[in-house]
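Before going further, learn to read the protein records used in this course. A complete example follows; check for yourself that the lines match position by position.
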Amino acid sequence: MKLAIAIALALIAGIFVFSFSQNKPQNFSRVSLASTEYEQAGQEIAQQINDLSPTPPTTEIFAIKELEFVKNQPFVYVVYHDTRNAFRVLLETLKSTGSDRKYYRVVAAFEAEGQRWKLTGGQDLAKGKETVKINPN
């Protein structure tokens, strides 16, 4: 009986590992956005910010205050807020192989610290790079 349970657990673990190994990140590639794509990307990010944010809003939804696209890079800084708190994330723009659809992934998270942003998670892969700031309104 114990042997059958051990075999079943090993089989389940093997299936679990195999299923997750099929979702390999190499199926995605980084996409640098042209300045003509910033507005559309901003709209897409605005629609997804509640899901992208590592912190849930204290009210129903977040609103985007500012977007800073990193020139010739696949990154965008997003400043967003609910009625009480402001946050900043660095998103990476990705494209799935064989698709034109863009995906956004959080690579760094920041919290306000006075007049500056403090890195609270991830890596600031675009630090010091030239950005283009746009307002989503």
The chain has one domain: 27-134. Confidence is low (pLDDT under 50) at residues 4-25. The beta strands are 28-30, 63-70, 75-81, 86-96, 102-113, 116-122, 131-134. Residues 27-134 form one domain.
